[in-house]
Amino acid sequence: MFDEPKFHFWKVGTGDSTSIVIKEDVVLQVDLNDNASDDNDNVAIVDTLVEELPEKDGNPYLSGFALTHPDQDHIKGFKDLLDQVTIGELWFTPGVFNEYKKDLCEDAVVFQDEAMRRVKLAIEKGAELDSGERIRIVGYDDLLETDEFKGFPTELLSGAGQAVTELDGEDLDGEFRAFIHAPFNDDEEHDRNDTSLAMQVVLGDDPSKGGALLFGDISYPVIRRIFDETKAHENEESLAWKVFLAPHHCSKSVMYQREDGTEVRKQDILDDLDDAQVGEGYIVSSSERVPTSNKKGDNPPHAIAKDRYEEVAGGDFLCTGEDSGKASGLTFTSSDGDIEFDGESEQSAEAVDKVGAAVIAGRGSDEPPTDDVGFGH
């Protein structure tokens, strides 16, 4: 499972669990939703990681764990994971937690406690930390002016517009690049979902070939700003994608906004997503099956968002809860920076069926025609 570069989107219901294999035995886990039960066929993600991960010093080992934001469907099971797995490095966005002060779930509290344990070690020991102690803060410089983070090493801080090529003390330049798009310096003013960690992850050395865009639960205003800021800095290659994880589990809030009481379609962001697509890209909804329609007020996934994404995706729109079949999720392998889906998409299957039908029709039949054919018929 963790033997070659790939992106794997686990089948965990409506929630995010993405494993990024940078190279053999070097794995970055982004979010966690341990949502398996007798009533569903979701993957028992913590048990699976414990069984499948490489070992280091006799324990299952993750090079890194990055949390986009501490909603339960992005952090569920972290306490069990931390008890059983050595996590080399944590990526921590403190500004996000400021928006969740009163309603953090148990796993989010455990994550925050572990992150702050590592922050204190970094303040005491400096940037030279050991595996299992390492921490990367994703946020903004003025955070270091607060008493809680005063003295934190600046080399362990990454903000919007910066790229990270190191994980758990290993220089992975040329093999791994995570470009941070958000949160922005002033994101604490936004809805808490819009303070999510958002990034482009490339397995290779050329972001223009397209990587995976992982945008947490952000909605239209922030994704609009991400595109605008990136273009303003002439850094469009950091938006290039072959795989786009649909934000907030295929929520319509990415491309629809309420204006004067009316839900307005924002075609501009769909056009920008299309322009940033490299070749025939794939859009993935990490969710249960997308319904054919929704009622007002329904939580994601939203059918209308799927419709829009199908218009954009040159390869296919895929859903972990629908297109994984008996597999544990959806896998995209990377070779020399090129990303390919390890499966047969619905669109490609339909295309094969149509070609096959055309070939059969073109061959004709061994039986003579039964209808008269001639002029005027």
Characterise this structure.
- With about 375 residues, the chain is an alpha/beta fold.
- It has 11 helices and 22 strands.
- The chain has helices at about 45-50, 70-75, 80-85, 95-100, 105-125, 220-230, 245-250, 265-275, 305-310, 320-325, 345-365, and strands at about 5-10, 20-25, 25-30, 30-35, 55, 60-65, 85-90, 135-140, 155-160, 165, 165, 170, 175-180, 200, 210-215, 240-245, 255-260, 260-265, 275-285, 315-320, 330-335, 340.
- It is globular, with a radius of gyration of 23 Å.
- It starts with 5 loop residues before the first strand and ends in a 14-residue tail after the last helix.
- About 45% of the residues are buried.
Short overview:
With 377 residues, this protein is an alpha/beta fold.
Low-confidence stretches: 346-377
Quaternary state reads: single chain
Termini distance? 61 Å
Q: What's the total number of strands?
A: 22
Proportion of residues in β-strands = 25-35%
Q: What overall geometry do the principal axes of the alpha carbons give?
A: globular
Helical stretch tally: 11
Sheet with the most strands, sense and barrel status: 10 strands, mixed
Helix content: 25-40%
